[in-house]
Specification:
Blueprint: H1 11-40, H2 44-67, H3 73-87, H4 106-137, H5 146-170, H6 173-197, H7 217-245, H8 253-266, H9 272-288, H10 301-324, H11 332-357, H12 363-374, H13 391-414, H14 417-420, H15 423-439, H16 443-467, E1 471-474, E2 477-484, E3 489-494, E4 497-503, H17 521-527, H18 529-533, E5 538-542, E6 558-563, H19 566-573, H20 579-583, E7 588-591, H21 594-599, E8 606-611, H22 626-635, E9 636-645, H23 654-664, E10 667-673, E11 684-690, H24 694-702, H25 732-736
Parallel strand pairs: 5-6, 5-8, 6-7, 8-9
Antiparallel strand pairs: 1-2, 2-3, 3-4, 9-11, 10-11
Helix pairs in contact: 1-4, 1-5, 1-6, 2-4, 2-7, 2-11, 3-4, 3-6, 4-11, 5-8, 7-8, 7-10, 7-11, 7-12, 8-10, 9-10, 9-15, 12-16, 13-15, 13-16
């Protein structure tokens, strides 16, 4: 029999095993979300719900690893390998069939769907990282296992990035699932080899392990807090960015990727990078965290970079502190279990509790303030401790800095600095205040100055909007209703995107505005509906918004609206916006995902079908696939018109629609409306598709002053439920350009 002490350490084997498992873990997350897209849509909270499921499964996996910790390695291996092989019967991964949720129950339905789809394999793969570290440390000569956790998160980051860059563009979903299954088989082999390398190791309580003293509850609570805040901040940053700053598709990958990389830095054996970032973190928190309450829809790349830098520096600082508080190696599984529980708590607060409690992303500034309360503050230049300095002078210095921060915040709040200071002078003043705050590292001063800067740089405006109850938050987004008295307008914004407006002037109250002006493609089609289909023309609209399109309704026409969000419907029913009640009070309303609901409709039931559904500025990809258009065409009469709104800042959708038209053999044209009056009207692009090309000639003849043009050359492949990638169609110039 070979003794464990005589066997080789085989560090490389354990590193490869951990990297493989973590890579698979974070490759399957976006893959399953992509599978579920036709049924879930693309709202930010869908991703947050998915992340909550993954964190809960990760917690369960770590609890399972912790439960096995006292068994002999061979016994752990036998149990773990048996379960890994048993879970393989659920492969290849495919979405389970689950009845659609009732409106308002999406917050529970989404986690249930994802858990049933990927739960068994995710649970077991998530457990292999702490198990492999435990098995690795079972060898007396192995040394500390903590760096392997950095390797685990490096593998997770690689898996996360590989999906949008490689897996999604190159493979259909079936191929992705099969490839993942092969990776899972390789992982089983690697786990078996790792078990073989430690087959003769003793239990964790062997002589080479240190002590068995219980960990104080206070230490466990601190671990929990240090893990919960970065986890919650990662999700709140995702929501904050995609809702109020920069509604760029795929943006959710960046916060999660930086969150994973923070573990790589914080748990590395080389401590210098973690120390440098931790030392710099308080300054970054004051500079970037000061914008954590902004909801001005600025959309600048500077704020995006500031938000993600804030997340990374905070996560590294708190995770490095967590690393410094790590227990001896025999408590490894408990440590990771508590970390995982903290991550799940942070996720639950952001994904489940906050949307119910808050009308805006208030969890984001709260978590930034919590990070300020927990992170280490610099002490290298703490002049309060200089010999001979009286405590009163130290207090006077701190009060001076606090007063200076208050004055600067007041100037920012009132915008009076526009007249008094240029940008360079402003940043100089801000830098002086921040340096003074950091040179006096009293926690109350640090947090107080941060809060003042938050309130000054957009926070008061956000707070006033909440006090005025001008916002509504639902599972599908955050909607802001604003009245502009000078222009006599009421607007509806979903995140960063204007979704419609209505005049408060009784004379113009029913005048269509924004994307629906008289020169828009939708207006032209709907004005001609009766001429082409008779007095009883049948019209359906996907996406209610303010209900502006209802004002193209004519007597005798039969209309139906499809809306996924009850909160949007309430805005029309309570007469916040009166287009629907005044123009089409008898229109039918179908609440639910339009694609699923249209599939239930009778064949040929509509003459005109308008697709006008956006989530902030994000395109609901599942509404633009071949399968989705098959549903639309089935619901249309043989000569019906399908009108699709593709106005968008970041994605070039024209080639995608052209590819779909080519696939289905449809005639298509696009109307680009660029109105002169930008106060009431907004540039828009509407695509019309039909089985009968003659219908396009009728539209062109009806408005010679509003020409239609052919679509751009089609994309190489139409999007399908099984294959779609937005990367080739991103308008990078708009992404990088400041407004």
């Amino acid at each position: 029999m070979i003794e464990a002490s005589a066997a080789p350490v085989r560090r490389a084997l354990f590193v490869v095993t951990i990297l493989t498992g973590s890579f698979l873990l974070f490759l399957v997350q976006p893959m399953v979300a992509r599978m579920a897209l036709p049924r879930l849509g693309g709202a930010p909270n869908v991703w947050n719900s998915a992340m909550l499921v993954y964190q809960a499964l990760l917690l369960a996996g770590y609890a399972y690893a912790h439960r096995l910790r006292r068994l002999l390695v061979r016994r752990q291996a036998a149990i773990h390998l048996t379960l890994l092989i048993a879970a393989a019967v659920t492969l290849p991964i495919a979405l389970v069939h689950l009845p659609a949720p009732a409106p308002g129950w999406e917050v529970l339905w989404v986690p249930a769907l994802l858990t049933l789809t990927v739960g068994p394999v995710f649970f077991l793969v998530s457990a292999q990282a702490p198990l492999m570290q435990r098995w690795f440390s079972a060898h007396p000569a192995a040394g500390q296992p903590w760096a392997l956790y950095a390797a685990s998160n490096l593998g997770s980051f690689a898996g996360l990035v590989a999906y949008p860059l490689l897996a999604e563009p190159l493979l259909r979903l079936r191929g992705q699932s099969l490839s993942w299954s092969m990776g899972y088989a390789a992982l089983i082999v690697l786990v078996a080899l790792a078990a073989r390398a430690r087959w003769h190791a003793g239990p964790e309580a062997d002589a080479h392990c240190v002590g068995d003293e219980p960990v104080p509850v206070r230490r466990i609570l601190l671990w929990l807090s240090l893990a919960a805040v970065p986890s919650g901040l990662m999700l709140s940053t995702t929501t904050h960015l995609t809702t109020d700053i920069f509604a760029m598709p795929l943006l959710w990958v960046i916060p999660l990727g930086l969150y994973l990389l923070s573990f790589v830095v914080a748990f590395s054996d080389r401590r210098l990078p973690a120390r440098i970032i931790t030392f710099s973190a308080p300054a970054v928190v004051l500079l970037a965290g000061g914008f954590a309450m902004t909801s001005r829809n600025s959309g600048t790349l500077t704020l995006v970079l500031a938000s993600v830098a804030l997340l990374f520096f905070v996560a590294v600082a708190l995770h490095a502190k967590l690393y410094d508080l790590r227990p001896p190696a025999e408590r490894l599984t408990l440590f990771y279990l508590v970390m995982s529980a903290g991550g799940a708590l942070g996720g639950a607060f952001t994904a489940l509790i906050a949307p119910v409690l808050f009308d805006w992303v208030w969890e984001h500034p709260f978590l930034v303030l919590a990070a300020a309360l927990l992170m280490p503050l610099p002490t290298a230049f703490d002049w309060r401790r200089l010999p001979g300095l009286e405590p009163g002078m130290a207090r006077l210095g701190s009060l001076t800095v606090f007063a200076a921060a208050g004055i600067l915040s007041y100037m920012l709040l009132g915008d009076s600095w526009n007249a008094a200071l240029d940008d360079n002078q402003l940043w100089l003043a801000l830098s002086i205040v921040i340096c003074g705050c950091l040179l006096i590292p009293w926690r109350w001063l640090f947090v107080g100055v941060l809060l003042m800067l938050m309130l000054a740089q957009g926070g008061m405006e956000t707070l006033v909007t909440s006090i005025e109850k001008a916002r509504i938050r639902s599972y599908f987004g955050i909607y802001t209703v604003r009245d502009y008295s000078t222009q006599r307008l009421r607007t509806l914004a979903h995140g960063t995107t204007l979704h419609g407006q209505q005049s408060l002037d009784p004379v113009r109250r029913l005048q269509p505005m924004t994307y629906y002006g008289p020169g828009s493609g939708a207006a032209i089609v709907l004005e001609e509906a009766q001429a082409m289909y008779g007095k009883a023309a049948r019209v359906a609209v996907v996406g209610l918004g303010t209900g502006t399109l209802a004002c193209f309704h004519k007597p005798g026409e039969r209309w139906r609206f499809y809306e996924i969000d009850p909160a949007v419907l309430r805005l029309s029913r309570n007469r916040t916006f009166t287009y629907l009640s005044d123009c089409a009070p008898d229109a039918g309303i179908v609440l639910g995902d339009a694609r699923l609901e249209l599939a239930k409709a009778h064949s040929g039931v509509f003459d005109v079908l308008a697709i006008d559904a956006f989530s902030s500025d994000a395109i609901p990809l599942h509404l633009l696939t071949e399968e989705a258009f098959a549903v639309y065409l089935r619901a249309l009469s043989p000569g019906g018109l399908l009108v699709v709104h593709i106005s968008n800042r970041y994605i070039e959708l024209e080639p995608v629609l052209a590819a779909v038209a080519k696939t289905h053999g449809l005639a298509a044209a696009i109307r680009d409306d660029n109105p002169y009056d930008r106060t009431l009207l907004t540039p828009s692009s509407w695509v019309v598709l039909t089985r009968e090309p003659a219908r396009l000639k009728v539209l062109a003849a009806s408005r010679p002053d509003a020409p239609w043009r052919p679509l751009a050359p089609p994309a190489p492949k139409a999007w399908t439920d099984d294959y779609a990638s937005i990367l080739p169609y991103v308008r990078w110039s708009n992404v990088l350009r400041h407004p």
